[in-house]
Amino acid sequence: MRNKMAKAAVGSLVMLASIACSPGVPAEVPKLPQPGVVSTLPVNATSIAGGDFDGDNLEDLVVAGNIPGKGGVFSAVYVLWNNGSGYNDPKLISQVPVGDPRVYVADVNGDRRPDVVVVGTVAGSGGSKSNVYVIKNMGNARFALE
Ligand SMILES: [Ca+2]
Ligand SMILES: [Ca+2]
């Protein structure tokens, strides 16, 4: 009994695999609603986070990504200001010499303004080292690397 069930399961998997891999047979793509693009950035984005950086009670966005043509070891960090009906053009707030950056938002210095923390792979480390940076929110839409 158990053997029969196992054979049936293997048969199903083989059938699924052959359906998934059949060349020339286009896969059925379900038609799903598509959201509108709110911004396009000149980087290979690897991370996004939210935070109200200007204190207007509208959640802004911070996006980080690899700068094209820099070998994946140099990154840019942008803020997208929420204007209540969309987002303003992305503002470059920092460039950091790491690849595949990730961003995290936290008020690291306790001034009630959310700051941006970035971590990414150090160039030339073969992926064995990462650097962490803090980009301080100075207020008035200004940021500074700590
Ligand atoms: Ca805001
Ligand atoms: Ca802060």
Mean pLDDT comes to 88
Low-confidence stretches: 13-19
How much helix, percentage-wise, in residues? Answer: 10-25%
Shape: flat
Distance between the termini: 66 Å
Global Rg:
22 Å
**Number of beta strands:** 8
- As a percent range, the share of strand residues is 35-45%
Can you give a write-up of this model?
With 146 residues, the protein is mainly β. The chain contains 1 helix and 8 strands; from the N terminus they run H-E-E-E-E-E-E-E-E. It has one helix spanning 2-21; strands spanning 44-51, 60-66, 75-80, 91-96, 98-106, 115-122, 130-139, 142-145. The strands form 2 sheets. The chain has a 4-stranded antiparallel β-sheet, with no helix packed on it. The protein has a 4-stranded antiparallel β-sheet with strand order 5-6-7-8, with no helix packed on it. The protein binds calcium ion (2 copies). One calcium ion (CA) binds at residues 52-54, 56, 58, 60, 82.
At a glance:
This protein has 146 residues and is mainly β. It contains 1 helix and 8 strands; from the N terminus they run αββββββββ. Strand 2 and strand 3 form a beta hairpin.
Spell out the blueprint of helices and strands.
Layout: H1 2-21, E1 44-51, E2 60-66, E3 75-80, E4 91-96, E5 98-106, E6 115-122, E7 130-139, E8 142-145
Antiparallel strand pairs: 1-2, 2-3, 3-4, 5-6, 6-7, 7-8
Bound molecules: calcium ion (CA) (2 copies).
Residues 52-54, 56, 58, 60, 82 line the site of one calcium ion.
List keywords for this structure.
single chain, binds calcium ion, 146 residues, 14% helix, mainly beta
